[in-house]
Give the backbone structure.
Amino acid sequence: MFEQKNLPHDTPDPQPRHFWRALFGRLRNNFLTGLVVIAPMGLTVWLFWTLTGWIDGFVMPFIPIRFQPQHYIGIDVRGLGVIFFLIFTLLMGWAAKGLIGRSFIAWGERMVDRMPVVRSVYNGLKQIAETVFAKSETSFDRACLVEYPRPGMWAVGFISTRAKGEVSRVIPREEQIVSVFLPTTPNPTSGFLLFVPLSDVIALDMSVEEAAKLVISAGLVSPEDRAAIAADPTALSDLAARQKIGA
């Protein structure tokens, strides 16, 4: 028996395989790039479209038929419930500032206080609403770093205000105590309230919004070091060059 040898023309050509592999790699990269561009835009549109539909479905049943365009043109205009909701909210806010409105609200709260379960739910929601929508004293002062959960490990927090009342009095420290909100990742609406000595807090130059982005992104979105840019004149030009290349 003769051993069969591979002739030159029997050798498989690797060129088509490399071509299809490179083509598939380009298509995959283009798809991922397009997904990064489309996903935030699509999710934003979907979120607002869903929220608008939810508000319309809740508000429109309370609107008389003669005020609904569907009664005249036969088409459901999406977003009309949002407009009615905004107008109603503005009227309620205007009425609540007057004497009659305040008297009516006080009477309603007295009625709610007589209902055990409803009273707890209403007071909790009212406190949350006042905390979220208050304009002055509820905003954070600045971002900071605190050692948490043990010495040597640092976490991003937000300085809210100085410790007051009994908390400031009973803490056995002579220096000033500040209250720091320590958010969780990636949901910064929940977290921990820490009372920390001022000397144990490292204030950051980044804004509260930049620190919030840092927390939400789990460290992926990090703001530029402003102090380093200010100390090194060439750092600003390098930063502009990197941004131009990234664009």
